[in-house]
Each structure stands twice: as structure tokens, then as C-alpha cells.
Design goal:
2 strands, two-stranded antiparallel ribbon
Length: 116
């Protein structure tokens, strides 16, 4: 089960990086990642706030960037050219990119707390 729908992604989150055809797959992967880092507690939080849905969208976008090989480091408008950073040292790693995306939205919720 994905924590966010494409409609939420487009309308509430304001996302435009993921095409509708790819969103379901990426949102499911993002939800699995969120379940892992929250030790399965996220599902109980689903209806309380939009933080979980926003985290799902952010992690899905991070997965898309990871699949493309990294962040865009150069882009041209004429004849559309993009270069992706895969091993530039100041670019976050794939794992760091996912962590940043989930921490941004879930850190204030307490879902990431691993203590007793």
C-alpha cells in the first residue's frame, strides 16, 4: 500500500517530477522505505496528518533521482541536454538522498524515534 496517491502528489504536494505512469511503483517503494525506518509504525499515523503522505512523495522523488543516476548537475534548454551527478563528492549518496527526504517530513512526528 502506498501512503500517497498521484492526486495528492500533484494537487497537495505540488509535485511534477514523477509522471503518473511511474508514480504508483515509486510510491510503493517509498512506502516500504518509510515502513522500514519507522519500524512499521507509519501505518497507524496515516490518517492523522499529511506529513506521512508528503514523506512518501519526497522519498518517491528521491527514488526517481536515484534511478536516473543522481542529481542534475547541468541542463541546457536548447536541444534539451541533462547531465546527472553519480559520483560528485558534494552530491548526496542514494541512501543520504532517501534519508533526507524522509527526515524532512517525519522527524517532527516522532515516528523516527528508535528509543524506548
Amino acid at each position: 500500500m502506498a501512503y500517497a496517491t498521484y492526486e495528492f502528489y500533484k494537487d497537495s504536494y505540488g509535485g511534477d517530477a514523477i509522471p503518473q505512469a511511474d508514480f504508483s511503483r515509486l510510491a510503493k517503494r517509498a512506502s516500504e522505505y518509510i515502513d522500514m525506518v519507522t519500524l512499521g509504525r507509519a501505518v497507524r499515523y496515516l490518517d492523522e496528518h499529511d506529513d506521512l503522505k508528503k514523506a512518501c512523495c519526497a522519498v518517491a522523488e528521491a527514488y526517481k533521482i536515484n534511478e536516473e543516476g543522481g542529481g542534475v548537475v547541468a541542463e541546457s534548454v536548447g536541444k534539451i541536454t541533462r547531465n546527472y551527478a553519480a559520483s560528485v563528492t558534494n552530491t548526496p549518496t542514494e541512501g543520504e538522498r532517501l534519508a533526507i527526504a524522509v527526515f524532512t517530513h517525519l522527524l517532527p512526528t516522532g515516528l523516527l524515534y528508535l528509543g524506548v
